[in-house]
Amino acid sequence: MTSPADTPEEPRRQFASDNWSGICPEALEALIAANRGHVPAYGDDDYTRQACDLIRDFFETRCEVFFTFNGTAANSLVLASLCQSYHSILCHQLAHIETDECGAPEFFSNGTKVLLVPGDDGKIDLKSVEHAITRRSDIHYPKPKVLSITQATEVGTVYTVDELKAAWSVARRYDLRIHMDGARFANALAALGATPREITWEAGVDVLCLGGTKNGLPVGDAVVFFNKELAREFDYRCKQAGQLASKMRFLTAPWAGILKDGAFLRHAKNANARAAQLESELRGTPGIAIKYPRQANSVFLEVPPSLIAGLRRKGWSFYQFIGDGGVRLMCSWDTTEEDVRRIVDDIRTLLARSCER
Ligand SMILES: *Cc1c(COP(=O)(O)O)cnc(C)c1O
Predict the structure, then answer these.
(1) Which residue's C-alpha comes closest to atom 5 of ligand 1?
(2) Is the pLDDT of residue 194 over 60?
């Protein structure tokens, strides 16, 4: 028997990461609805077929779709399938595949080298990309094969359609494939107000790793091959890497749940709007500098160490190791206006107190 006293209090919503959030109602309902009777395992079921079809409808094209347990696996397995071990992958120096995947892209590709490119606001500078491709053409240099773009970027900025097309023209000139790390693709989409097709296959993206976990799913990111040639035998790669879910319906039914009535975009819009609220509340506050243009669902701040300590004492969690430092406040699908007001009030109180001293 559990008494009310044994029931832990509901933890507050934080600004640490969008994957600290729970499951959105649309995904949870679909998950529960999928828990009926027996259906075929390993993805040969109607829930999975429906999820794949909804993803094809979303992108308005006949793409090939796969599901992995997380984004690291999606990125790494895609990159491994686009490259031979003597190739190289070009990405921004802050890219998740470089800084946050524990070497998985290199591991799964048997040593394909990741080459880093600089660029302002978390976006690759195309002159530097071109330099990295053309500086050597001899046999001693790992042959550039993939340009990897993160949308939205690690620092919460978003590539415009024109920027994506400019990257495509460089990739095309040198016969590079384009991989898009879309862990926060929905947030980028909501920020741009574009259509999904405009910022993917119509801008030259060969493969997209489509994030769901940070936008209300329990688990499971999708891999979307617009260039279907490249999807050959990807199912074997997933299986070998331990990424073929046996009870696949529980990964895919929630995808159908968030896609069929537009919740996927709606939740991303909320997260972006809450970040916009946070930014407008904090902009101009003495002692606080906003680090990057706020375009998606995060706000990066440069603040005094005493404020960081004070916020932590008040029970707030946030990351300080993403991008090139500072405090990252990340909004989620379920962040409310009230949540934003609470942290802003705490920030104001702490700053006022430190001025009094
Ligand atoms: C969260 C994230 C991923 C995926 O991370 P997992 O923890 O492996 O799901 C990939 N790319 C970016 C940019 C991310 O923010």
Answers:
(1) 71
(2) yes
